[in-house]
Amino acid sequence: MNGIEHIQSAFEAARAEQRAALMPYCTIGYPSRAATLDVLEAVARAGADLIELGVPFSDPLADGPTIQRSTQVALEQGMTVAGCLEITAQLRARGVTQPLMLMGYINPLLAYGLQRFCRDAQAAGADGLIIPDLPPEEAGELVAACREHGLALIYLLSPASPAERIATVVAQTSGFLYLVSLTGVTGARSSLPPELPAFVERVREAAPSLPLAVGFGIATPEHARQVGQLADGVIVGSALVDAIGKAADPVEAAGEFVAGLRKGMEE
Amino acid sequence: MTTSTLPHKFGPYGGQFVPEVLIPAVTELERAYLEARADPAFQRELDHLLATYVGRPTPLTFAGRLTAELGGAQIYLKREDLAHTGAHKINNALGQALLAQRMGKRRIIAETGAGQHGVASATVAALLGMECIVYMGSVDIARQQPNVQRMMLLGAEVRPVESGSRTLKDAVNEAIRDWVTNVRDTYYLLGSALGPHPYPTMVRDFQAVIGREAREQMLTQVGRLPDECIACVGGGSNAIGLFDAFRDDEGVALVGVEAGGDGLHTGRHAARFSDPKLGRPGVLHGAYTYVLQTEDGQVADTHSISAGLDYAAVGPEHALLHDTERAVYTTADDRQALAAFQLLARCEGILPALESSHAVAEAARLAPLLGRDKILLVNLSGRGDKDLDSVLKALKEQA
Questions:
Q1: Which of A109, A252, B34, B281 has the greatest number of beta carbons closer than 10 A?
Q2: DSSP B220
Q3: Are B321 and B254 in contact (CB under 8 A)?
């Protein structure tokens, strides 16, 4: 099973249970290099259907303060692209079976070498890539490398995307589509954007067979429940990172937070 | 409606490496710019304001005492320091603000390093009755106080940026985050020839007035073209604005001067082209270009005495001019820039901006090596009043 098939099977399994798939995000190397593997394992055991692993970058311009801070902490502790791939492999070695998406900005990947990165990501057990500063027009070389190594390359859509743009992106994504719930950067919000249902509906019409996962601003079990009724996947990042950062025991906090989201989605 | 688009890249450099939410915005911007460029009424309004508000054309000054002091090539100065607000930044700010007005956007955001682009943006926003928010790193706020005060008096809101290295790079990050959030009603008035397409092309076009005027002035005042055109390069807008008119003049060398900071060997500089260990092609702020970065692809911290050159990437057109060797890129370090600042002040009665002092330093290095029949044209991109604190402090430390 390649990455794309692995991702699709996770969405299908959730759908078979008549619920959306839960996809938590964690920055690799946060809150510390020592704790990151235990945190990620706890996330996996607490009910994640897929996991987004953040590869730190010094200038994360699509991210709000919470994830900015977490990537800065990870970098200060010496986290690197190679280190992220190592953590991914160790997570697999611990028996984590969910699809793993590496989420990161393009420059560190270019520095590592796109071919080499895809080869090593596949070997480490990753299933897909999410690159927020790489629209399809700029992705040529990475598309080829992902194809060669069976990795999904997931594109994003925003509520500002007009119909023709949605069609363009839908035609080129693989695995699933990442719907950014709002015009803005990542970060917990107190309520969901009112135009979200209409946005999901517009994309659904253009992509009836692709899983649609919604992220940005989803912070609580109640948000997750509401989004889960609209979309096939629910992505929660900043609120989880925040919970991990604040807790005396980050591993326990990560597990509890993810279990809470999962419970909310099953209500 | 115009349907053709502009080239997105300069050779392999440039492009649109932006979050998906900004794709409609850069597409709309490109379309609006193409339409404005083709509209004689837009050009007329811009030209009218450049003449009656900015004070263009700016003079070409023969630096006679400096030339005599250096004892070699003749040095001419293109006096962008005499443009309204004291730097070339106003040329671009005015052009883009008129475009924003045409697009019906009432809220302007801008980033600034030295504060010159922030002041220019605040100025045109006041002129056209727009809301203006300027992002500025807190390190730069501390070293460019006069410009912060000017922006506030002009009615702009200055938002301090505390993330990362708290300089220009981080101000651009924050401006982009604001743009991503308020994309529907906000115009991002980017201050240099960098960022995603169409900014590098559009900013160059608005700054090309520098080179057009200077070329014409050389021909009428001196009777011939210069042998070398010299400009400092941070993002690179004053340099590309000067170079553009001379790019087809084979006998004219184009020289960009990057910030050597504490010296190339220290790693504390902003020399994207001159330090191959740190400066390699990569992506920052929406464009593929030369970026100072670590082996792991993290953007490196930069240093320069001049806030406007203290930036890790460079405009993508410069990357192509560098690779094709149509332009050469050299460096002046903090000490050389400071010496050039003093030299120009004492020989010509002009206080140059610390950014422009880097170009003066290169001219001062070159002139004695060349014969008296050679001509160097230096873009004096801004005035140095904003830098008095930095200069006096640095001179005290040297003493």
A1: A109
A2: I
A3: yes
Compute the distance between CA of residue A53 and CA of residue A39 in angstroms, rounded to an integer.
Answer: 11
Asked whether B227 and B305 are in contact (CB, 8 A), the reply is no
Read off the tokens for A31. 């809150």
Distance CA B141, CA B115 (A): 8
Are A107 and B282 an interchain contact pair (Cβ–Cβ within 8 Å)? Answer: yes
Q: Phi and psi of A45, rounded to 5°? A: -75, -20
How far is the C-alpha of B378 from the C-alpha of B49, rounded, in Å?
A: 25
A63 is catalytic: yes
Over residues A104-158, the pLDDT tens digits come to 999 999 999 999 999 999 999 999 999 999 999 999 999 999 999 999 999 999 9
The pair phi, psi for residue B170, each rounded to 5°, is -75, -30
Q: Tally A–B CB contacts below 8 A.
A: 113
- The SS3 assignment for B212 reads helix
State yes or no: pLDDT of B3 exceeds 60. no
At residue A177, the 3 state secondary structure works out as strand
Label residue A59 exposed, middle or buried (CB < 10 Å: 0-12, 13-18, 19+).
buried
Burial of residue B246, with CB atoms counted within 10 A of its CB: 0-12 exposed, 13-18 middle, 19 or more buried: buried
Over residues B279-304, the pLDDT tens digits come to 999 999 999 999 999 999 999 999 99
The helix or strand, by DSSP H or E, that contains position B48, with its residue range, turns out to be helix B40-49
Instruction: Say if residue A150 is exposed, middle or buried (CB neighbours under 10 Å; 0-12, 13-18, 19+).
Output: middle
The Cβ-side half-sphere exposure at B378, using a 13 Å CA radius, reads 32
Q: What span, in angstroms and rounded, lies between the C-alpha atoms of B13 and B311?
A: 18
Q: Is A246 helix (H, G, I), strand (E, B) or coil?
A: helix
- My answer on whether omega of the bond before B57 falls inside 30° of 0, hence cis, is yes
How does pLDDT run across A240-257, given as a tens digit for each residue?
999 999 999 999 999 999
Of A17, A41, A49, A63, which is the active-site residue?
A63
Instruction: Determine whether B325 is an active site residue.
Output: no
- Reference A24, options A38, A39, A34; nearest CA is A39
CA distance B193 to B234: 10
Give me the interface pTM, i.e. the ipTM.
0.96
Task: Select which of A5, A12, A17, A52 is catalytic.
Answer: A52
Of B20, B21, B295, the CB nearest to A111: B295
End-to-end CA distance of chain A: 32
User: What span, in angstroms and rounded, lies between the C-alpha atoms of B311 and B284?
Assistant: 11
In the structure encoding, which two tokens stand for residue B59, read together? Answer: 């003079």
Q: Do B285 and A157 touch (CB under 8 A)?
A: no
Q: Compute the nearest-CA separation of B295 from chain A (Å).
A: 7
Amino acid at A223: H
Domains annotated for chain A, with CATH where assigned, are 3-266 (3.20.20.70)
Buried b (16+ CB within 10 A) or exposed e, B197-233: bbbbbbbbbbbbbbbebbbebbeeeeeebbbbbbbbb
**Shortest CA gap A264–chain B (Å):** 28
Instruction: Quick: pLDDT tens for B145-199.
Output: 999 999 999 999 999 999 888 999 999 999 999 999 999 899 999 999 999 999 9
Of all residues in chain B, the percent with pLDDT exceeding 70 is 99
